[in-house]
Amino acid sequence: MDEFKKIISRIISILLITFLPCAGLLVVYFFTAPRIAEYYDIKEKRAVLDIFRIPYRTVEKKFMGFHFTVYDKKDIQEVFRKNITMETPPLSWEIQPTGRDSSEERQKDTSGKRIFKYVKEGSLQGVGFVESKMGYGYNKSSTMSLFICLEPDGETLKGIEVLDHSETPGLGGRITEDQFKKQFIGKKLKPKIIMVKERKAEGANEFDAITGATNTSKGIAAFINDAVKEFWEGQREITW
Description:
The chain is α+β, with helices and mostly antiparallel strands and 240 residues long. The protein has helices at 2-51, 73-83, 178-181, 214-233, and strands at residues 58-63, 66-71, 84-87, 115-120, 123-134, 143-150, 157-164, 194-196, 206-208. It has a domain at 85-233.
C-alpha cells in the first residue's frame, strides 16, 4: 500500500511540475498577446504615417537624465483612420474616400497583402505595402519585414521603413538608421535597385552599402527588388 502511495505521489508531483509552468506560460500569453499585437499594429501605422509625413501627437519625457519620446496611441490610430485608405490586391488606382478599408470587401484568397494609400486634397500621394521575407540580409534564418512605399508613378520609391529584423546591432542593424533609409527616397525601381560599395552612389537607382555589412545591404536590395516585382505582377492592369 505504501508503495502504491509513493507511485501516486510521484505521478501527482510530475503532473504538477509540468502543469504549473504550462499554466503560467498560458496566463502570461493571454495577458501579453493583446499588448504585443497592439505594439506591432501601432508600429506599422507609425511607419505608414512617417513615410507620408503625416504628423501625429508625441510627448517628450525625461527620466533620470534620459530623454525619450512617448507616442499617443489613440492619436496615431485616429490620424491613420482619417488619412489612410487600405485595400487588398488587385489595387484600385481610383481615389477612394479617406479612411476607407476595403480589405474586407475583397476575396480573402487574393494575396492577403494590404495596400496603404494616401490621398491629399484629391491627389494620390503614393501607395505602400508591408512585405515579410525569409533569408535576406546577413541572418538568413530569420524574417525581415519592411514597409515599402511607392510614388504615384509606380516606378519611384517614396521611402522604406524597417519593421522587423534580426541583423547584428551596430552593423546590419544600422538599416533602421535614418541616414541609411533616407537614401532610398526618390530612387528609381527600374530596372532595379543596386547597392554600391567602394564608391559613392550616384545613379538614380543606386544606394550606398553599410560599411561592414555588405551582405545585409545586398539583402535589402534583393528584398526591395523582389517585393516590388511581386507587387506589380499581382496587379491586373500593370505588367513589370
